[in-house]
Design goal:
With about 220 residues, this protein is an alpha/beta fold. A 5-stranded parallel sheet has the order 2-1-3-4-7, with helices on both faces. Strands 5-6 form a two-stranded antiparallel sheet. Strands 8-9 form a two-stranded antiparallel ribbon.
């Protein structure tokens, strides 16, 4: 009499990884897609608003990302960066700039100083979200740039930016600054790009503008 056959063993070694991939796929499918940006006319005005990352600390003024982006797009890009500014201060400053310049597009890169000072993350999120809401209420499109969270390990973008982008369905440049500040050749100091880094950031924003229909 032949010995009884055993049922085939099912390997479970890859099951956790497969489950994780499935969950990530489902989350990606559930995330709202950003709405297209309005095409930017030749005389359109872009307002780049933020702190030292917008001002261009670490490089000369003509090599800040707004200056490089102006060259790439052929549109007027106003550099409204203020070094050291926190999100609450930025929220107070933005309305006057929107009234003054009447931009077609706001490129928002804010909250980095809050993160460096370990300020309340929910308040930072609310402040940045309110900046988006304010611009949108005036018919201004918004492109959001994520700032990396300070960490001893690999730099990563602070998750609040993805949440804000999903809430308002706006384009998000999520990985450029984390990539730049993780490479010595692209940064002037631990928290600021150099001229080469700002060029990379401008190129990534330009690519996103093209993908989003603005250019």
């Amino acid at each position: 009499m032949p010995p009884p056959t055993r049922p085939p063993r099912i390997s479970t070694g890859s099951r956790p990884a497969a489950i994780l991939l499935l969950m990530l796929s489902l989350l990606a499918a559930c995330s709202p897609r950003p709405e297209p940006l309005a095409p930017l006319r030749g005389d359109a005005v872009i307002l780049a608003f933020g702190d030292s990352l917008t001002a261009g600390t670490g490089a000369s003024a003509d090599r800040s990302f707004p200056a490089v982006l102006e060259q790439r797009t052929g549109r007027s890009v106003i550099n409204a960066g203020r070094p050291g500014e926190r999100s609450a201060e930025g929220l107070a400053r933005l309305p006057a700039l929107l009234d003054e310049h009447r931009p077609d597009l706001l490129i928002l890169t804010h909250g980095g100083n809050d993160l460096l000072r370990r300020m309340d993350i929910d308040q930072t999120r609310d402040n940045v979200a309110e900046m988006v809401r304010l611009a949108r209420s005036q018919g201004v499109d918004v492109l959001l740039v994520a700032v990396p969270a300070p960490t001893l390990l690999r730099l990563r973008s602070e998750p609040i930016y993805a949440g804000i982008a999903d809430e308002f369905r706006i384009p998000l440049e999520e990985g450029a600054l984390a990539h730049i500040l993780g490479r010595d050749a692209l940064k002037a100091d631990p928290i600021h790009p150099n001229a080469a880094g700002y060029r990379v950031l401008a190129e990534r924003i330009h690519e996103l503008l093209v993908q989003s229909g603005a250019l």
